[in-house]
Amino acid sequence: MTLIDVHTHLFNHAHLPVEAIGRRFLLYSLHTDPIVAAAGGRAFAKLVDQIAVLNEDPSHAQLIDALIKAKTWSQVQRALLLLTPHRRSPALREAIELYGAQRPQGDEPADDREKPPKPCSQDGNIERFLLLMTLQSGAMPRRLLAEYGPQRVPALIVHLMMDMDEGYRCDGAMPETALTPKQRVDELVEMGLAYKGRLAGFVPFDPRRPDALELVHYGLARGMVGVKVYPPMGYYPADSRYSARLNALYAYCEQEGVPVVSHTSPCGFEALPSYGLYAAPEGWRAVLKDYPKLRLCLAHAGSGDHRNYPSIQDNPAKPTEHPVHYPGWYNAAKDWDAQVYARQVLELCADFDNVYTDLSYLTQLSEEGTKRDTLRKTMRDNLVYLFKDPRLGRVMQTRLMFGSDWHMPAAVGHAASNLKVFEDMFEHQALSPFRDAFFGGNALRFLNLNEVRGRVQRTGDAMDEMLTYWEGLKP
Question: pLDDT value at position 315?
């Protein structure tokens, strides 16, 4: 069996608008005053930078281990105070104190006033996530491979870049990041070359960026294998506001066989409240009618179980009282109706021959808790039910792929356990004949790696070694 993790992320904090993310977290999740949120965002960015300086210090590894286990800000704060050499570093001590002064204490908003909805991504995990991101880029794959362990090392790890710059604009201004978009691509290409083909990257695309398609061409010419789009930053797959750039991307990728991955969970790393709903899978149907041969992965297969606030999708400042429930893989598939994202994903896979999906970030299946065993049974029963379905069974057999969504917060520390959950499920007699396809064979067809060499313009022994490794992978 060729094991492929088709959905990971290996970029670090230098690729993200940390200050803008911190500001929006304080504003929407903790409901601070906008002026305080702006100051807090700057303070948090300084804290992240100072933690990143510790990469060569033994305390950094200890801090990362503690952050993986942390669930609340209080636990994050305790880890910062106990496991960083802040007493030896005035700048770090100042950063901890400055952010602590701007952030309301505790794990909930400080007052009892009416609270508007917050983005799915903007819970307490966002602070932990950004601090976890202080690992050096080269350390990301080492940590992921260590989590899998020597007996389960994937033959290929597919990592997806994300472009959050436009999504976190503030008053029309682009947020600051440590690296330019092309520098981010270059950094991850070099990381891939160092691993001699074990890593394959997807370049990001945001249709609001004027040079978005140029960045795609740059990444593919440097050795990236596909394109990642992320609608929860604030755009639809077939968004009339950006139709020229979107259509140019789809036409090129369809013609050249370049795979595209899109987020399709009703939640996710939302730029603003309810923006996860930009990712509704059915939004891709109009695209696929125009580009029916587009090689597309609808990532997360609609996801497990979420709530969101659809009435404020176009007006994030307007709160609603009650979220809408979006059931998914943690609920019985036989009860899914046409509005369920998971159902929409599978219907698109059935209607278009080049549409795939992955089961990534179903993290509750590997977390400790009283619901875990029930969720695992429901998930396995769903797989058995769908694999036997007269219409959708073919989709499940040939287009369903394994992924982890590492290093999203709840996935870090669980790579091996997540794999084991799905290995156990595919021991079922109804699923075992399709085990090799799920864990790698379907991904190899989707990735279309044999066509990458024709797009790459970079030469050299390291590039040739990487391309040769990809071309030699077999199901």
Answer: 65
Q: Is the peptide bond before 407 cis (omega within 30 degrees of 0)?
A: yes
Structure confidence by residue, pLDDT tens digits, 154-166: 999 999 999 999 9
Q: 3-state class of 366 per DSSP?
A: coil
DSSP structural state of residue 103: S
Does the pTM surpass 0.85? The reply is yes
Give the integer Cα–Cα distance in Å for 348 and 194: 37
For the chain, which domains are there? 4-14+137-451 (3.20.20.140), 17-126 (no CATH)
Beta strands at 305-308 and 400-402: parallel, antiparallel or unpaired: unpaired
Q: Specify the residue for token string 């061409």.
A: 217
Q: Which whole number is the average pLDDT over 297-319?
A: 79
Place of tokens 């994903």: 345
Q: How far apart are CA 171 and CA 13, in angstroms?
A: 23
User: From residue 90, how far is each of 87, 98, 330 by CA, in Å?
Assistant: 7, 12, 48
| Farthest-apart Cα atoms in the chain, separation | 65
**Tokens of residue 441, six digits:** 């064979």
3-state secondary structure of 262: strand
Query: What residue type is 282 in one-letter code?
Result: E
Could you give phi then psi for residue 227, rounded to 5 degrees?
A: -130, 135
